[in-house]
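Appendix B.2, paired examples.
Example (i):
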Amino acid sequence: MPIHTHPLRTLIDSLRRDTFFLILLAGLAVLAIATRRPLGDYPALVDWPTIGALAGLLALTKGLEMSGAIGWLGHRLVGAMASERKAALSLVAASALLSTVLTNDVALFVVVPLTLGVCRIAALPATRLIVFEALAVNAGSALTPIGNPQNLFIWQQSQVPFAQFVLHMLPLVLPMMAALLALTALAFRSRPIAASAEHRRRQIDRRLLGVSLALYIPFLAAADMHHAGWAVLAVLATFLVLRARVLAQLDWGLLLVFVLMFIDLRLLAGLEPVRDAMHGFGLDQPKHLYLAGIAASQLVSNVPAAIALAEYSRDWRVIAYAVSVGGFGFMAGSLANLIALRMSGDRKAWIGFHAWSVPFLGFAAALGYALLFWLD
């Protein structure tokens, strides 16, 4: 008889192995002593609309993933690849497109395993492909408010309409994607590859697929109207009744990480020496804010950078550009980079990643600067 691990036990085991969570937890302990703020104040430090929107998106994307539809589409795509260059362009473009609606992390969870499978069959350069897919999800996810956690936070904080956010990011994302696709075409050869043999029939849970798709647009509309709390309750209740296993496999640990991130960063921002230092950077000036966002992303990744900068400025347009650009460069710039390199299984993948990502940061930073301050 198979032994089923209790979801709570699985969550605890996962958190015990999550280095980032443990760092945040240790930071909370230190900050609690330093600030002496009552524990009852901590829930007010969390941006609950952002957490609600993230929880709903995680549930809906998990539903799509568990329905089997994404895997089926991926394998259909594989069959159409005829050369190394076309395979690379297809996978990079697919990564970027998926990241606009499934978030950058989820896009990687879909595309990277598929890439590794294709590379085993066709002897493609797996590490280089995964590096370019990491760059692609950083670029593509910048387009929409739901493409990545930092955009989700900025969108909920700014309360701008979905379409307005997209229109603001479009001039940055289109040239970045054009440059990335051109770079992909240069980095991969045109040699023919054998068609993938993995076309085994895949079962699709049509009911789960239908429910996930049916809830997606109403959820986004509700979040756009600032009703993310009620919307996520409706989504979770629907899955609880129809497919409880979706909730059991949801990444609840990621939500806890974001809750801790809000508390830690806002406690830190409340310390007088930190506030004095941050005010000394002149973050009220858009150019300083833009450069600070890129630099902070390189040090702590772009999600914490967005949360921290929001404590000192409400200029969402500049912050959104800064943390989107900041996802490139060093691998710490975005959690998606770390996920992709970890999934590659290549301990030296970080070398190839930086060889492509650091120069791309220079291009993206100059592009964002020009769009914000020269062409505006």
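Example (ii):
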Amino acid sequence: MDAEIWWSAVDAPMTVTPGSQPRIAATRVLDAVLHHGRSLKAELTSAQQGLDDPRDRALVEAICLAVLRQPARFDAALAAWMPRPLARRDRELRALLLVGFAQLDPMGLPAHAAVAATVEAARGLGRDHQAGMVNALLRRALREGLPALESHAHWPAWLCSRIEGDWPAEAESILTASEQAPPMWLRVNRQQGNREAYRAELTAVGIEGVLVDGLDDALRLDAPVPVAGLPGFAEGRVSVQDGAAQRVVDAMAVDGGMRVLDACAAPGGKAAHLLERESSLDLTALDIDRRRLRQVQTTFDRLGLGADARLLAADATDLAAWWDGVPFDAIVLDAPCSATGIIRRQPDVLLHRRESDIDNLVALQGRLLDALWQTLAPGGSLVYTTCSILRDENDRQIAAFLARTSDSQGEALEEGFGRAPENETHGRQRLPGEDGMDGFFYARLRKAPASVSGE
């Protein structure tokens, strides 16, 4: 590239435009995630709070996800087109350039507006002296297109190896599905209506919702929309929750009046779904993180469920700290896991997860199962679920628990929960993208009745 063009300013001074604000926000989120190890979800939440227009909030999220689904491709363009690597002090500039590339490909936003707004974002970030470079690189990307790379180049080798070992026939489809943008799934609050009526409301405002067999409260939107555009969202008539996560409550099959525990409750989707199904439940929502437990309360308040549950902040494995000794009829353990089934929604998992994490997570999951089993009433059921696709966290974890726990028995779940990895009594696995849903594992365990467990 010509050095004069490289370092020149854009043709004329530009004033700050509203379109630059979401690009600035996306740049700051990506800088935090890529260069400082921060959580995408947390950084997005913080950045979106500073934007008034829901369309801007949606654009920030879309840009960040597009970058993190293929960062190696964008970095290859920088390596090929820049005369020298960016210095450490220019990490924010790297993030801005990735924001620009993502808008052009794969997002396909109108090129002139995307380039102009991204160049203006450089000025808004105090990088006036680099605005010309941003302009030149983005225009080159328009002319030449971004370089093609080998598929899945940004995936850690250790994770690819584990997926290939666990799912040899499905490994390629898992990786490919995990890099695709997912549909938007809604859960209709049956305390305030039903999905058929809500679908009609969506149609009336120009939003197409798809009814899915086997998911009694769900609608799928193949073209996602900002939540502010959903009728009745603020009033609690609908929530955003993937179809696979909604299936957890189906696996529990609770009845009114039951004493129920959601053992790792934040941010509250499954606990809320339980109460939407059966408002008379005696529900305890437990989470180790007091701050995240406040999210559960916020969720309950929006849905009109604020007075219907007991919220406790404690380590679920420390029974003395929270359990009153009264057994639960049903427990859901949405266990901490590798999140390898939801990479399409949280692509920063590929940046932050380490192979050593897996053994630590497997050990924690085992401790949670052993501790919570003590709180389950004879004859009661525990549903163990993760958003992982790694078998050590899923069917092998359950097989090990059943082998060491004499009063436990696995119960079969129907095919609608996914495939049986080895033995249907060891749970069901849904892989990413199957039926448009996230990767999820489900197992239902039954505790022997008192007359049997006491023998």
